[in-house]
Design a protein that fits this description.
The protein has nine helices and five strands. It has 175 residues and is α+β, with helices and mostly antiparallel strands. A three-stranded antiparallel β-sheet has the order 3-5-4. A two-stranded antiparallel sheet has the order 1-2. It starts with a helix and ends with a helix.
């Protein structure tokens, strides 16, 4: 099983995006899905215990090596600049999409109280938002939702990990 664990570790390392248990199973058809999951949990624990520069985390429906968040200032120095920032308008637009998806532009405009066209365009370019189809109403407006990249950037396994309204209120009280 140590060889299988090493193979899984190498697969994750070589993958450009978070890789799912199902995809690992396709690559390792002779290994049971439960065994892959167990080995992944072992790897996660080993990297946590080691307390090195990176961790193995479940994110965006798969597994990926991630730099420890407490080392971000060093990564910023490596990248020679500031991390890519988003305007408040873009963040607010993204929040509306994340919580209301699938949602049409007119609904986002209504919630935000402004035209979100330019913020929406930027979010599409950054691949944080995608077109999910068209709403079955007159005019067939485009519906928007978040992407796997959104989950990766915000370090979420899935949308159920978004903070609830109560979580957000608790944060404001604690601030």
């Amino acid at each position: 099983m140590e060889e299988t664990k090493a193979i899984i570790e190498a697969i994750i390392f070589a993958s450009e995006a978070p890789i799912s248990v199902d995809k690992i199973k396709e690559i390792l058809p002779d290994v049971e899905k439960m065994e892959i999951t167990r080995l992944l949990q072992d790897l996660i624990a080993e990297y946590e215990k080691r307390w090195g520069g990176f961790l193995l985390q479940e994110v965006a429906g798969g597994f990926q090596f991630r730099t420890r968040s407490d080392l971000s200032s060093w990564m910023t120095k490596l990248m020679r600049g500031k991390p890519a920032m988003m305007s408040n308008a873009a963040m607010e637009t993204l929040a509306v999409i994340a919580y209301k998806q699938p949602v049409v532009k007119s609904e986002i405009d209504r919630i935000r109280g402004v035209d979100v066209g330019s913020s929406l365009k930027g979010l599409l370019e950054k691949k944080l938002v995608r077109i999910m189809g068209r709403k079955d109403v007159p005019g067939k407006p485009i519906m928007y939702g978040t992407t796997k990249k959104f989950l990766e950037v915000f370090n979420l396994k899935d949308l159920s990990e978004l903070p609830t309204l109560k979580d957000l209120k608790d944060l404001q009280v604690g601030a």
